[in-house]
Amino acid sequence: MNQMAKKELIKEVKPRYLKASKEEKNKILDEFCESTRYNRKYAITILQAKYDNDKIKNSGRKKRKSIYTNQVITIVIKVWELLDFPCGARLKPQLLPMIEAMERHKEISVVQKIKNLLKRISAKTLDRKLKRERRIRRLDRNRGMTAHGSLLKSLIPIRITDWDTAKLGFAETDTVAHNGGDPSGEFIYSLDIVEIYCGWSEQYAVMGKGEAGVVKAIDEIETSLPFDLLGLDSDSGSEFVSWHMVKYCQERNLFFTRSRPDKKNDNAHIEERNNTRVRRLLGFDRFDTMKQLAAINDLYRKELRLYNNFFLPIMKIVSKEKINNSVCRKKYDEAKTPYQRLMGCPQLSQKKKTKLKKQYLSLNPVKLKNEIDRKIKKIKSMQK
Questions:
Q1: Which of 30, 81, 171, 247 makes a 20 to 30 Å CA pair with 280?
Q2: Element (DSSP H or E) covering residue 211
Q3: Hey, how many other C-beta atoms are within 10 angstroms of the C-beta on 227?
Q4: Which residues contact 159 (CB under 8 A, 6 or more apart)?
């Protein structure tokens, strides 16, 4: 018997119970307890005249005492803003590490009592507490753009979704056009690369998408990676499917593959980063001058790569489960930064881990974020 049926039964039985004799009450209680599976003492209590069976409806639920005060949520919002507004599941594991990093550089001071509360707050609670802030800031917008080509496709194998995500060194790459909706003339493209195992991402701006310029940008990025690049996967755009790219990968013994044309889900990792790492920063405006190119690369190759890889958390899908042949339920691992995933990777040498840790301890996330915001404003002001 469900709760609705039990409530209806109480409404029917209670008037009869109150008017009944002692013997009749015993019989009514027997029948009532057998139907509802209630304890007899509890049944006697709820059938009394003074007991309000509609207490919640009449007076409402008793309000819970607030555990997380405005002081706690204010600190949460500061970290949330600093990490570029992640969801609760990504924000939760990084709250205390970010506060420690901010305290290390004297950007914030948090008492132990608040730290204890932040340690126990759940991802769902974070989402609820930040729901209003997210609505005010209008953070649920999304648009996209890409391009493709056809040269040398027969020489480059197609890879769909069979990445070995347990092996470090395989990456996806793509370009993002900054043409402001006007594809005429020459304009800037952002080359975006993301490593699959740890989520380490790099960006580099190039003028146009000529094959030589794109290959040179990939070479610059490869030299700055804290791990060895083993494989590269791109879409079927002409900037990647070219003799320059094939020769580059052959010389460095890189496993080079491409996705199917017009199948964005084949490059799901990089397509997601195109939005979060490029579009959210530079928007959909047109950039087409050498001055803008230098300013964008100054942002990409300095503060942005450090901020993204050392402080922004990412989650990886652990499993997928289809429900009723339509809805797909996904399970994710704990949110970690690319730096944290590299530090826990057995394939990375201890020497490289020590170098990474030394670099991490020297970084001030607040200073990095402020400098990123300043440079983005400067880049956008160049359009006027």
A1: 171
A2: helix 211-224
A3: 19
A4: 233, 257, 258, 259, 266
Burial of 191 (0-12, 13-18, 19+ CB in 10 A): buried
- H or E stretch covering 328: strand 327-332
Q: How far is CA 81 from the centre of its chain?
A: 14
Beta-carbon count within 10 A of 195 CB:
25
By C-alpha distance, which of 87, 98, 83, 84 is closest to 130?
A: 87
Token duo for residue 286: 């047109």
Q: Please report how the helices 3-19 and 22-36 are oriented relative to each other, as an axis angle in degrees rounded to 10.
A: 180
Token pair recorded at residue 346: 């057995």
Q: Which residue has the tokens 């949460």?
A: 76
Q: Which helix (H) or strand (E) holds 201?
A: strand 201-207
Exposed (0-12), middle (13-18) or buried (19+): which is 224, by Cβ within 10 Å? exposed
CA 202 – CA 33 distance, rounded (Å)? 67
| pTM, entire model | 0.73
CB 240 within 8 A of CB 214: yes
Helix (H, G, I), strand (E, B) or coil at 170: strand
Cα dihedral angle (207, 210, 213, 214), rounded to 10 degrees?
A: 100
> Which sequence spans correspond to the domains of the chain?
3-56, 70-137, 153-381
Residue 151 has pLDDT above 60, yes or no: no
The CATH number of 153-381 is 3.30.420.10
| End-to-end CA, the chain | 69
Beta strands 317-323 and 255-258 are unpaired
Residue 26 contacts residue 43 (beta carbons within 8 Å): no
Looking from the CA of 21 toward its CB, the CA atoms found within 13 Å total 2
